[in-house]
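User: Before I run my own analysis I want an independent prediction to cross-check against. Here's the chain; please return only the structure tokens and, at the end, one sentence I can use as a sanity check.
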Amino acid sequence: MTMRGVFTLRRKLRLNARVNYSQSITSRNARLRSRSHGRPSRRLSMEEAMNAQSQRRAWLILCFVVVWGLSAFWMTYAQQPASQETANYTFTGKSWRIESKDLNLSSRGFEASARSDWHTHGGAQLLFVQQGRLRYQVRGQQVSEVGLHGTAYLPGGVPHWHGAVPDQDLIQVSVTFAPGIKWMEKVSDAEYSARTAR
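Assistant: Structure tokens:
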């Protein structure tokens, strides 16, 4: 075979390869069209992709603003006092709401044997045992204990202390009925370990 024959053969092979490649591209495009139900499939340009992303962000911000607005409206509406008409259906007899401006609600945890110092409150204090066991004492009275879900009432202005029993942690919920607290001396180990009233 001559050199000319070799070049001719190479040209024919390249031409066949191009024809085969274009046929494979055409069949691939046909397959893609059939998958997309006749719509031609195309890649998005960078600008189109950025526009789509901006639109998604705008929708997300709009949804957030709508949810925030609805929740603000709901919170405002939910805090409105019930009308007299509604109150007539939810209570028997006359009932009124007492404002809680001087009411203080808190929760505190104590490790086993931990306790407060002696102190007084400006108003009464109600302790609720959420977990564990409470030990407390009002000055001049015996040490007392309260178990799970029990309550202890401590009068306002009277020195007292409270905390966990020696072998259990405590979580208490405290409701005080007036502001102000005055701290006093530490509770001695002897006071804490005194015999409890049952």
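Sanity check: Residues 111 and 147 are 15 Å apart (CA to CA).
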